[in-house]
Design brief:
The complex is a heterodimer of chains A (111) and B (114). Chain A is mainly β and 111 residues long. Chain A is 0% helix and 58% strand. Chain A is globular and about 40 Å long. The N and C termini of chain A lie far apart (41 Å). The relative contact order of chain A is 0.34. Chain B has 114 residues and is mainly β. Chain B has no helices and 11 strands. The model of chain B has no long low-confidence stretch (mean pLDDT 94). The chains are: A mainly beta (111), B mainly beta (114). Chain A binds chain B through residues 31-32, 34, 36, 41-46, 49, 51, 89, 91, 93, 97-104, and chain B through 31, 33, 35, 40-45, 48, 50, 56, 58-59, 90, 92, 96, 98-99, 101-108.
């Protein structure tokens, strides 16, 4: 059964710190992996999409990596800011066009 | 503006009263899907559609129906809502082609069934 796990469930860091969020998944035969941000009471916003043939993607202060062999992806946030406070979710697509989501990591950046 | 629009955003109803949550996208996406989000369980897929007149069950389809008669619309129907369907619902859409299947989400519909 395909499962996506995100640990820790919550994380607090002081402003300016670099941080890493983790996502692990069963079954390495993925099509792609996406990272999303969710603000309280709002929908999800796509941050980065990594295709199965790629190792990483970058957007501004965000860098997402993918290691299919170990079933892991990481989202690196550089120089964190209070505005980065949100819940971050990863979603994996396997064959069948279904997306499977982790339960997310709630990030708080303390000014 | 490219977007996915859901309505209603908030709804309180009673057990057994049929309701429909509408979803519309203006990006000409082939793929549309519905999710529910519950504390501790994350987002779970209810139904998805890869094109007009093509729909498939996700992981939690029981108690829900969908239709895809037009490319832009994908309504979620609860024929006889029950309290365990109280949840936050999201509609999302994307292109199907590899590299372009970034999911775009609606703002969510919070449903309470009494």
């Amino acid at each position: 059964k395909q499962e996506v796990t995100q640990i820790p469930a919550a994380l607090s860091v002081p402003e300016g710190e670099n941080l890493v969020l983790n996502c692990s998944f069963t079954d390495s035969a993925i099509y792609n992996l996406q990272w999303f941000r969710q603000d309280p009471g709002k929908g999800l916003t796509s941050l980065l999409l990594i295709q199965s043939s790629q190792r990483e993607q970058t957007s501004g202060r965000l860098n997402a990596s993918l290691d299919k062999s170990s079933g892991r992806s990481t989202l690196y946030i550089a120089a964190s800011q209070p505005g980065d406070s949100a819940t971050y979710l990863c979603a994996v697509m396997w064959a069948g066009n279904q997306f499977y989501f982790g339960t997310g990591t709630s990030l708080t950046v303390i000014p | 503006e490219a977007q996915v629009t859901q309505n209603p955003r908030y709804l309180i109803t009673v057990t057994g009263k049929k309701l429909t949550v509408t979803c519309s996208q203006n990006m000409n996406h082939e793929y549309m899907s519905w999710y529910r989000q519950d504390p501790g369980l994350g987002l779970r897929q209810i139904y998805y559609s890869m094109n007009v007149e093509v729909t498939d069950k996700g992981d939690v389809p029981e108690g829900y129906k969908v239709s895809r008669k037009e490319k832009r619309n994908f309504p979620l129907i609860l024929e006889s809502p029950s309290p365990n369907q109280t949840s936050l619902y999201f509609c999302a859409s994307s292109f199907l082609s590899s590299g372009a299947n970034v999911l775009t989400f609606g703002a969510g519909s919070r449903l309470t069934v009494l």
